[in-house]
Amino acid sequence: MSESTDVNVNDPNRPNELHETRVMVVDDHPMWRDAVARDLAAAGFDVVATAGDGPEAVRRAHAVTPDVLVLDLNLPGMPGVQVCKELVGANPALRVLVLSASGEHADVLEAVKSGATGYLLKSAGAQELIDAVRRTAAGDPVFTPGLAGLVLGEYRRLATDPLPATSDEPKAPQLTDRETEVLRLVAKGLSYKQIAERLVISHRTVQNHVQNTLGKLQLHNRVELVRYAIERGLDDA
């Protein structure tokens, strides 16, 4: 990390849910990996495992089932995007926060398409990382400033090239009015917290609506959900 953590683990204002959030850190540089794990543990997260290469990351993640995976992209044995794709495919509830030295647009977009919830550069400070992991665990998209607009732009580009329809494609499932309302706000790029404030409902209720919508539409992650919404013009409604 670029700075040491200044988090007070005894701070009464620190969210109580942190100790319930299971985090796994994957990076091929031992000193960096240990520093990140140490900062997160000091902040109150339950760091359940670390890994130094792709195959090891997949094996350990299957074994310990973390809530949040803090993942580097440049890994020996298996690229980080493939690790992300495999683990999110097996467990759609997994949140993946990419922590990378690369700010290249192609890397960011590839990570998001593989199922990553957020993307943070390694130049971020310890407190920024801690906040990002907390928000990622809550289901919010977290991006280094300047990258969020890039990702939303890619959602829109994908929506102009929809997947081909098949002759036996089933009728689209019916969403409730509230689910449609939440979906529309997700497509506009709002975080779950912002949606909860906008609709005057709890953060947990927003998460439940999103999970129900994913199940009804047979989608796997937020990327696919936003694409679905933009294809139907919900972001302009």
UniProtKB/TrEMBL annotation:
Modification 4-aspartylphosphate, positions: D72
The keyword DNA-binding appears for this protein: yes
A Pfam family hit: GerE
This protein's record includes keyword NAD: no
GO molecular function, one term: DNA binding
Keywords in alphabetical order: DNA-binding, Phosphoprotein
Family matches, as InterPro entries: CheY-like_superfamily, NreC/VraR/RcsB-like_REC, Sig_transdc_resp-reg_C-effctor, Sig_transdc_resp-reg_receiver, Tscrpt_reg_LuxR_C, WalR-like
Span of domain Response regulatory: 22-137
Domain HTH luxR-type: 168-233
PROSITE patterns: HTH_LUXR_1 (PS00622), HTH_LUXR_2 (PS50043), RESPONSE_REGULATORY (PS50110)
PANTHER family recorded: TRANSCRIPTIONAL REGULATORY PROTEIN DESR, TWO-COMPONENT RESPONSE REGULATOR
Name recorded for this polypeptide: DNA-binding response regulator
UniProt source species: Streptomyces spororaveus
